Q: What sequence folds into this?
């Protein structure tokens, strides 16, 4: 004779167990979902993250630093409209701009060049990866003053490994000093420049001549120099 065993399961017990089981499944799904999300977003960040470098733009007042930054953006940023030169006023403090190119993000810090503002330059040295030094090639009277400010800057040990782009600006003006004239003056400081990457280039921030070439050179140097000055977003690699 077949026995029929009916287990007694009180209703109350079933209704208590089911929701607990369901909670377990849903929290484990949530956990895996979260893990997937973290993995996917980390992977996305890895694919899209760009090395970020900071470049400080220095030089005497009126050298053309702010005009240069505008020209640099015009040469590398699609759709950037140049500011009217009559609207560019002397920088007091800091003017910033960025360029996204060749897999890197360049952050430019254009500082004021007036004598009393030069004291602030070294506050930016620790965080910058390269220096652009702008010279007014048309201003023969202040070339020695510019060289002195340059020497003071490169003497600073914090900048020892930072690539240096020296721009003989205002090449569009008649009677300006060409690179052949500017280079020997700044080469007198070769012992201070040492082994860092250094290039003197003729440019016109007004016409845009030579601007893109300088930026390309700088980006190559920054990429080569990552061991001594790692990019901002990647300092722990
Ligand atoms: N002809 C000519 N003029 C230029 C050039 N670059 C800049 N200028 C002019 O030089 C003047 C000063 O330019 P800025 O860009 O304001 O100079 P700055 O170095 O930023 O000066 P501060 O902000 O005072 O340190 C402006 O009248 C510009 O139009 C250039 O390549 N050629
Ligand atoms: Mg300026």
A:
């Amino acid at each position: 004779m077949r026995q029929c065993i009916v287990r007694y399961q009180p209703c109350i017990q079933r209704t208590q167990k089911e929701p607990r089981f369901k909670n377990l499944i849903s929290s484990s799904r949530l956990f895996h979902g979260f893990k997937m999300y973290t993995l996917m977003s980390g992977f996305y960040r890895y694919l899209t993250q760009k090395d970020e470098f900071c470049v400080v733009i220095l030089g005497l007042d009126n050298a053309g630093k702010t005009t240069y930054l505008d020209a640099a953006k015009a040469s590398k940023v699609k759709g950037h409209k140049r500011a009217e030169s009559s609207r560019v006023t002397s920088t007091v403090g800091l003017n910033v701009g960025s360029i996204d190119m060749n897999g890197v993000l360049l952050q430019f810090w254009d500082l004021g060049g007036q004598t009393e503002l030069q004291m602030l330059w070294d506050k930016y040295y620790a965080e910058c990866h390269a220096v652009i030094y702008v010279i007014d090639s048309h201003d023969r009277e202040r070339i020695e003053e510019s060289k002195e400010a340059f020497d003071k800057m490169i003497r600073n040990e914090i900048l020892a490994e930072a690539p240096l782009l020296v721009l003989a600006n205002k090449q569009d003006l008649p009677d300006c000093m060409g690179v052949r004239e500017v280079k020997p003056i700044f080469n007198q400081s070769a012992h201070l420049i040492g082994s860092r990457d250094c290039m003197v280039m003729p440019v016109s921030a007004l016409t845009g001549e030579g601007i893109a070439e300088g930026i390309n050179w700088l980006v190559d140097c920054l990429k080569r120099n990552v061991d001594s000055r790692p990019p901002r977003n990647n300092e722990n690699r």
Q: What stands out?
A: The first strand starts at residue 51 and ends at 58.
